[in-house]
Protein backbone atom coordinates (compact mmCIF):
# COMPACT_ATOMS: atom_id res chain seq x y z
CA UNK A 1 0.00 0.00 0.00
CA UNK A 2 0.95 3.64 -0.56
CA UNK A 3 3.81 2.75 -2.90
CA UNK A 4 5.08 5.86 -4.71
CA UNK A 5 7.77 4.20 -6.81
CA UNK A 6 8.13 6.02 -10.12
CA UNK A 7 6.11 9.01 -8.90
CA UNK A 8 7.45 12.56 -8.79
CA UNK A 9 6.78 15.11 -6.07
CA UNK A 10 7.57 18.74 -5.31
CA UNK A 11 7.58 19.86 -1.67
CA UNK A 12 7.79 23.55 -0.78
CA UNK A 13 9.12 24.65 2.57
CA UNK A 14 11.13 21.46 2.67
CA UNK A 15 13.67 22.79 5.16
CA UNK A 16 11.01 23.20 7.84
CA UNK A 17 10.22 20.47 10.37
CA UNK A 18 7.01 19.31 8.70
CA UNK A 19 8.20 19.94 5.12
CA UNK A 20 11.38 17.96 5.70
CA UNK A 21 9.41 15.10 7.19
CA UNK A 22 7.07 15.10 4.19
CA UNK A 23 9.98 15.05 1.73
CA UNK A 24 11.59 12.17 3.64
CA UNK A 25 8.35 10.18 3.77
CA UNK A 26 7.47 10.59 0.08
CA UNK A 27 11.04 9.71 -0.82
CA UNK A 28 10.93 6.74 1.54
CA UNK A 29 7.89 5.39 -0.33
CA UNK A 30 9.88 5.47 -3.55
CA UNK A 31 9.04 8.86 -5.02
CA UNK A 32 11.57 11.09 -6.75
CA UNK A 33 11.35 14.42 -4.96
CA UNK A 34 12.15 18.05 -5.70
CA UNK A 35 12.68 19.99 -2.49
CA UNK A 36 12.20 23.73 -2.41
CA UNK A 37 12.78 26.42 0.17
CA UNK A 38 14.61 29.67 0.73
CA UNK A 39 17.71 28.25 2.45
CA UNK A 40 19.88 26.58 -0.17
CA UNK A 41 22.33 25.13 2.34
CA UNK A 42 19.65 23.43 4.43
CA UNK A 43 18.09 22.05 1.23
CA UNK A 44 21.42 20.62 0.16
CA UNK A 45 21.85 19.03 3.58
CA UNK A 46 18.48 17.30 3.23
CA UNK A 47 19.35 16.26 -0.32
CA UNK A 48 22.63 14.72 0.91
CA UNK A 49 20.73 12.82 3.57
CA UNK A 50 18.21 11.46 1.05
CA UNK A 51 20.88 10.48 -1.49
CA UNK A 52 19.42 9.54 -4.87
CA UNK A 53 16.11 10.57 -6.45
CA UNK A 54 16.28 14.13 -5.12
CA UNK A 55 16.54 17.56 -6.75
CA UNK A 56 17.15 20.87 -5.01
CA UNK A 57 15.14 23.88 -6.23
CA UNK A 58 15.64 26.97 -4.05
CA UNK A 59 12.84 29.54 -4.41
CA UNK A 60 11.50 32.56 -2.59
CA UNK A 61 7.71 32.25 -2.42
CA UNK A 62 7.32 36.01 -1.87
CA UNK A 63 8.50 36.50 -5.45
CA UNK A 64 5.62 35.89 -7.88
CA UNK A 65 7.83 35.11 -10.88
CA UNK A 66 9.84 32.52 -9.00
CA UNK A 67 6.63 30.90 -7.71
CA UNK A 68 5.19 30.73 -11.22
CA UNK A 69 8.39 29.14 -12.51
CA UNK A 70 8.81 26.54 -9.77
CA UNK A 71 6.41 23.80 -10.96
CA UNK A 72 7.92 24.02 -14.46
CA UNK A 73 11.41 23.69 -13.03
CA UNK A 74 10.27 20.68 -11.03
CA UNK A 75 8.70 19.08 -14.12
CA UNK A 76 11.92 19.60 -16.05
CA UNK A 77 14.08 18.17 -13.25
CA UNK A 78 11.78 15.27 -12.40
CA UNK A 79 10.46 14.45 -15.87
CA UNK A 80 6.88 15.15 -14.75
CA UNK A 81 5.03 16.19 -11.63
CA UNK A 82 2.54 13.86 -9.98
CA UNK A 83 2.40 15.35 -6.50
CA UNK A 84 2.70 18.95 -5.31
CA UNK A 85 2.79 19.62 -1.58
CA UNK A 86 2.37 23.30 -0.77
CA UNK A 87 3.79 23.26 2.72
CA UNK A 88 5.68 26.54 2.91
CA UNK A 89 4.17 28.89 5.42
CA UNK A 90 5.10 31.81 7.62
CA UNK A 91 3.65 33.50 10.68
CA UNK A 92 3.63 37.19 11.58
CA UNK A 93 1.57 37.03 14.75
CA UNK A 94 0.04 40.15 16.22
CA UNK A 95 -3.17 41.16 17.90
CA UNK A 96 -5.66 42.31 15.32
CA UNK A 97 -5.75 45.93 16.50
CA UNK A 98 -1.98 46.16 16.18
CA UNK A 99 -1.54 44.18 12.97
CA UNK A 100 0.37 46.03 10.25
CA UNK A 101 -0.62 45.86 6.59
CA UNK A 102 2.72 44.18 5.82
CA UNK A 103 2.14 41.50 8.45
CA UNK A 104 -1.20 40.72 6.86
CA UNK A 105 0.08 40.86 3.29
CA UNK A 106 3.24 38.79 3.81
CA UNK A 107 1.35 35.91 5.39
CA UNK A 108 -1.39 35.89 2.75
CA UNK A 109 1.25 36.15 0.02
CA UNK A 110 3.30 33.13 1.05
CA UNK A 111 0.66 30.88 2.59
CA UNK A 112 -2.23 31.44 0.20
CA UNK A 113 -1.28 33.35 -2.95
CA UNK A 114 1.83 31.25 -3.55
CA UNK A 115 -0.38 28.17 -3.25
CA UNK A 116 -2.75 29.56 -5.87
CA UNK A 117 0.13 30.29 -8.24
CA UNK A 118 1.85 26.93 -7.67
CA UNK A 119 -1.37 25.00 -8.23
CA UNK A 120 -2.25 26.98 -11.36
CA UNK A 121 1.16 26.34 -12.87
CA UNK A 122 1.23 22.66 -11.89
CA UNK A 123 -2.29 21.98 -13.20
CA UNK A 124 -1.45 22.39 -16.89
CA UNK A 125 0.72 19.31 -16.98
CA UNK A 126 -1.45 17.35 -14.57
CA UNK A 127 -4.52 17.97 -16.74
CA UNK A 128 -2.67 16.73 -19.81
CA UNK A 129 -1.47 13.63 -17.98
CA UNK A 130 -4.93 13.10 -16.42
CA UNK A 131 -3.30 12.55 -13.06
CA UNK A 132 -2.26 14.68 -10.12
CA UNK A 133 -2.22 15.19 -6.40
CA UNK A 134 -2.32 18.66 -4.90
CA UNK A 135 -1.83 18.72 -1.15
CA UNK A 136 -1.94 21.91 0.92
CA UNK A 137 -0.62 22.03 4.45
CA UNK A 138 -3.10 24.18 6.31
CA UNK A 139 -3.59 24.33 10.08
CA UNK A 140 -6.10 23.56 12.79
CA UNK A 141 -6.31 27.31 13.38
CA UNK A 142 -7.71 27.73 9.85
CA UNK A 143 -10.79 25.99 11.23
CA UNK A 144 -10.84 27.11 14.87
CA UNK A 145 -9.21 30.56 14.70
CA UNK A 146 -6.57 31.67 17.18
CA UNK A 147 -6.02 34.97 18.96
CA UNK A 148 -3.00 36.79 17.54
CA UNK A 149 -3.18 34.88 14.27
CA UNK A 150 -5.90 36.64 12.28
CA UNK A 151 -3.66 36.76 9.22
CA UNK A 152 -2.38 33.19 9.54
CA UNK A 153 -5.82 31.73 10.26
CA UNK A 154 -7.26 33.61 7.27
CA UNK A 155 -4.54 32.27 4.98
CA UNK A 156 -5.05 28.70 6.19
CA UNK A 157 -8.85 28.88 5.97
CA UNK A 158 -8.38 30.35 2.50
CA UNK A 159 -6.30 27.39 1.46
CA UNK A 160 -9.09 25.03 2.50
CA UNK A 161 -11.75 26.94 0.53
CA UNK A 162 -9.49 27.25 -2.50
CA UNK A 163 -8.75 23.53 -2.43
CA UNK A 164 -12.42 22.55 -2.28
CA UNK A 165 -13.28 24.78 -5.23
CA UNK A 166 -10.40 23.48 -7.30
CA UNK A 167 -11.15 19.88 -6.30
CA UNK A 168 -14.58 20.22 -7.90
CA UNK A 169 -13.13 21.81 -11.05
CA UNK A 170 -10.48 19.23 -11.84
CA UNK A 171 -11.93 16.00 -10.44
CA UNK A 172 -12.88 14.85 -13.94
CA UNK A 173 -9.19 14.92 -14.87
CA UNK A 174 -8.05 12.47 -12.22
CA UNK A 175 -6.60 15.23 -10.08
CA UNK A 176 -7.37 15.36 -6.37
CA UNK A 177 -6.95 18.42 -4.17
CA UNK A 178 -6.78 17.97 -0.42
CA UNK A 179 -5.43 19.62 2.71
CA UNK A 180 -3.76 18.41 5.86
CA UNK A 181 -4.41 20.43 9.01
CA UNK A 182 -1.78 19.78 11.68
CA UNK A 183 -2.30 20.84 15.28
CA UNK A 184 0.60 21.26 17.71
CA UNK A 185 3.59 19.53 16.12
CA UNK A 186 6.98 19.27 17.84
CA UNK A 187 9.22 21.88 16.26
CA UNK A 188 11.56 24.70 17.23
CA UNK A 189 8.36 26.70 17.78
CA UNK A 190 6.92 24.34 20.40
CA UNK A 191 10.41 23.82 21.91
CA UNK A 192 10.47 27.53 22.66
CA UNK A 193 7.40 27.28 24.91
CA UNK A 194 8.11 27.21 28.66
CA UNK A 195 6.82 24.39 30.86
CA UNK A 196 3.76 26.31 31.95
CA UNK A 197 2.80 27.13 28.37
CA UNK A 198 3.40 23.54 27.33
CA UNK A 199 1.18 22.23 30.11
CA UNK A 200 -1.56 24.67 29.18
CA UNK A 201 -1.44 23.56 25.54
CA UNK A 202 -1.33 19.88 26.37
CA UNK A 203 -4.40 20.21 28.62
CA UNK A 204 -6.46 20.79 25.46
CA UNK A 205 -5.04 17.84 23.52
CA UNK A 206 -6.94 14.59 24.22
CA UNK A 207 -3.98 12.48 23.08
CA UNK A 208 -1.87 14.27 25.69
CA UNK A 209 1.18 15.08 23.60
CA UNK A 210 2.41 17.16 20.70
CA UNK A 211 2.47 15.48 17.28
CA UNK A 212 5.51 14.47 15.26
CA UNK A 213 6.38 15.76 11.80
CA UNK A 214 6.40 12.15 10.63
CA UNK A 215 2.75 11.82 11.67
CA UNK A 216 1.83 14.70 9.37
CA UNK A 217 4.02 13.24 6.64
CA UNK A 218 2.16 9.92 6.85
CA UNK A 219 -1.04 11.77 5.98
CA UNK A 220 0.71 13.30 2.96
CA UNK A 221 1.90 9.87 1.81
CA UNK A 222 -1.68 8.60 1.99
CA UNK A 223 -3.16 11.54 0.07
CA UNK A 224 -0.40 11.25 -2.55
CA UNK A 225 -1.01 7.56 -3.09
CA UNK A 226 -3.18 5.72 -5.60
CA UNK A 227 -5.15 4.37 -2.66
CA UNK A 228 -6.49 7.89 -1.96
CA UNK A 229 -7.90 8.29 -5.48
CA UNK A 230 -11.47 8.63 -4.16
CA UNK A 231 -10.62 11.32 -1.60
CA UNK A 232 -10.83 14.92 -2.80
CA UNK A 233 -11.74 18.30 -1.35
CA UNK A 234 -10.96 16.90 2.08
CA UNK A 235 -9.02 18.33 5.00
CA UNK A 236 -7.36 15.64 7.06
CA UNK A 237 -6.94 16.75 10.68
CA UNK A 238 -3.74 15.56 12.34
CA UNK A 239 -4.13 17.26 15.69
CA UNK A 240 -4.33 14.79 18.55
CA UNK A 241 -8.01 15.55 18.94
CA UNK A 242 -7.58 19.22 19.87
CA UNK A 243 -10.35 20.06 17.40
CA UNK A 244 -12.71 17.35 16.20
CA UNK A 245 -14.12 18.80 12.99
CA UNK B 1 -8.29 25.18 -45.92
CA UNK B 2 -5.98 27.85 -44.52
CA UNK B 3 -2.84 27.04 -42.58
CA UNK B 4 -4.46 28.40 -39.43
CA UNK B 5 -7.55 26.25 -39.93
CA UNK B 6 -5.31 23.19 -40.33
CA UNK B 7 -3.45 23.92 -37.12
CA UNK B 8 -6.69 24.60 -35.22
CA UNK B 9 -8.09 21.29 -36.44
CA UNK B 10 -4.95 19.44 -35.36
CA UNK B 11 -5.13 20.90 -31.85
CA UNK B 12 -8.83 20.05 -31.52
CA UNK B 13 -8.27 16.47 -32.69
CA UNK B 14 -5.38 16.03 -30.26
CA UNK B 15 -7.05 17.59 -27.23
CA UNK B 16 -10.51 16.12 -27.58
CA UNK B 17 -9.46 12.80 -29.06
CA UNK B 18 -12.09 12.99 -31.80
CA UNK B 19 -12.00 11.84 -35.43
CA UNK B 20 -10.61 14.47 -37.79
CA UNK B 21 -13.64 14.27 -40.11
CA UNK B 22 -15.89 15.38 -37.24
CA UNK B 23 -13.90 18.57 -36.81
CA UNK B 24 -15.77 20.66 -39.37
CA UNK B 25 -16.03 24.43 -39.44
CA UNK B 26 -19.50 24.43 -37.90
CA UNK B 27 -18.77 21.79 -35.28
CA UNK B 28 -19.54 23.05 -31.77
CA UNK B 29 -16.92 22.02 -29.22
CA UNK B 30 -19.48 21.23 -26.57
CA UNK B 31 -22.54 20.08 -28.56
CA UNK B 32 -20.84 18.18 -31.39
CA UNK B 33 -17.38 17.23 -30.12
CA UNK B 34 -18.20 16.27 -26.54
CA UNK B 35 -16.08 18.89 -24.82
CA UNK B 36 -16.84 20.00 -21.28
CA UNK B 37 -16.15 23.49 -19.93
CA UNK B 38 -12.68 22.49 -18.78
CA UNK B 39 -11.88 21.16 -22.27
CA UNK B 40 -12.80 24.50 -23.80
CA UNK B 41 -10.43 26.26 -21.38
CA UNK B 42 -7.68 23.81 -22.29
CA UNK B 43 -8.34 24.40 -26.00
CA UNK B 44 -8.14 28.17 -25.57
CA UNK B 45 -4.84 27.77 -23.71
CA UNK B 46 -3.53 25.48 -26.44
CA UNK B 47 -4.50 28.03 -29.11
CA UNK B 48 -2.74 30.75 -27.13
CA UNK B 49 0.41 28.67 -26.97
CA UNK B 50 0.36 27.56 -30.60
CA UNK B 51 -0.35 30.99 -32.06
CA UNK B 52 1.47 33.20 -29.55
CA UNK B 53 -1.64 35.23 -28.83
CA UNK B 54 -3.60 36.09 -25.72
CA UNK B 55 -7.31 35.29 -25.90
CA UNK B 56 -9.17 37.38 -23.29
CA UNK B 57 -12.02 35.73 -21.39
CA UNK B 58 -14.72 37.75 -23.14
CA UNK B 59 -13.35 36.70 -26.52
CA UNK B 60 -12.98 33.09 -25.41
CA UNK B 61 -16.68 33.04 -24.53
CA UNK B 62 -17.56 33.75 -28.17
CA UNK B 63 -15.44 30.87 -29.49
CA UNK B 64 -18.01 28.09 -29.60
CA UNK B 65 -17.21 26.32 -32.86
CA UNK B 66 -14.09 25.29 -34.74
CA UNK B 67 -14.84 28.06 -37.26
CA UNK B 68 -15.09 30.64 -34.46
CA UNK B 69 -11.59 29.72 -33.32
CA UNK B 70 -10.16 29.87 -36.82
CA UNK B 71 -11.76 33.24 -37.50
CA UNK B 72 -10.51 34.73 -34.24
CA UNK B 73 -6.99 33.46 -34.81
CA UNK B 74 -6.88 34.57 -38.45
CA UNK B 75 -7.68 38.05 -37.20
CA UNK B 76 -5.43 38.08 -34.14
CA UNK B 77 -2.64 35.54 -34.47
CA UNK B 78 0.85 36.97 -34.17
CA UNK B 79 2.53 34.21 -36.15
CA UNK B 80 0.13 33.04 -38.84
UniProtKB/TrEMBL annotation, chain A:
Active site (UniProt): 152
PROSITE patterns: ADH_SHORT (PS00061)
EC assignment: 1.1.1.100
InterPro entries linked: 3oxo_ACP_reduc (IPR011284), KR_dom (IPR057326), NAD(P)-bd_dom_sf (IPR036291), Sc_DH/Rdtase_CS (IPR020904), SDR (IPR050259), SDR_fam (IPR002347)
Pfam families named among the record's database cross-references: adh_short_C2
Domain Ketoreductase, first and last residues per copy: 7-183
Record keyword Repressor present: no
Keyword set, alphabetical order: Fatty acid biosynthesis, Fatty acid metabolism, Lipid biosynthesis, Lipid metabolism, NADP, Oxidoreductase
Organism listed in the record: Methylopila jiangsuensis
Enzyme class: oxidoreductase
Catalytically driven reaction(s): a (3R)-hydroxyacyl-[ACP] + NADP(+) = a 3-oxoacyl-[ACP] + NADPH + H(+)
Protein family per UniProt: Belongs to the short-chain dehydrogenases/reductases (SDR) family.
Binding site for NADP(+): 38, 87, 152-156, 185
SMART domains from the UniProt entry: PKS_KR (SM00822)
Quaternary organization: Homotetramer.
Task performed by this protein: Catalyzes the NADPH-dependent reduction of beta-ketoacyl-ACP substrates to beta-hydroxyacyl-ACP products, the first reductive step in the elongation cycle of fatty acid biosynthesis.
Keyword Secreted attributed: no
One biological process term in Gene Ontology: fatty acid biosynthetic process
Record's protein name: 3-oxoacyl-[acyl-carrier-protein] reductase
From TrEMBL, chain B:
Gene3D superfamilies, per the entry: ACP-like
Entry-linked Pfam families: PP-binding
A GO cellular-component term linked to this record: membrane
UniProt modification remark: 4'-phosphopantetheine is transferred from CoA to a specific serine of apo-ACP by acpS. 4'-phosphopantetheine is transferred from CoA to a specific serine of apo-ACP by AcpS. This modification is essential for activity because fatty acids are bound in thioester linkage to the sulfhydryl of the prosthetic group.
Molecular function, one GO term: phosphopantetheine binding
SMART domains assigned: PKS_PP
Pathway(s) served: Glycolipid biosynthesis; KDO(2)-lipid A biosynthesis; Lipid metabolism; fatty acid biosynthesis
Domain Carrier, first and last residues per copy: 2-77
Family indicated by similarity: Belongs to the acyl carrier protein (ACP) family.
Function per UniProt: Carrier of the growing fatty acid chain in fatty acid biosynthesis.
Protein name: Acyl carrier protein
Organism encoding this protein: Methylopila jiangsuensis
UniProt gene name: acpP
Amino acid sequence: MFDLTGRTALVTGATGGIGGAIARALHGQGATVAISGTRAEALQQLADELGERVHVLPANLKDAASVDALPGQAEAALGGLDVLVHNAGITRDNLFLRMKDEEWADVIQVNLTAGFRLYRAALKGMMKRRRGRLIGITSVVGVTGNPGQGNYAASKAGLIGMSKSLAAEVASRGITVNCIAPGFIESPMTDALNEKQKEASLAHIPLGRFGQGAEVAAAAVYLASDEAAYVTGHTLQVNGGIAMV
Amino acid sequence: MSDIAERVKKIVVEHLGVDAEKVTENASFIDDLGADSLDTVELVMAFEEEFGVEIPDDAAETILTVGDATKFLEKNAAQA
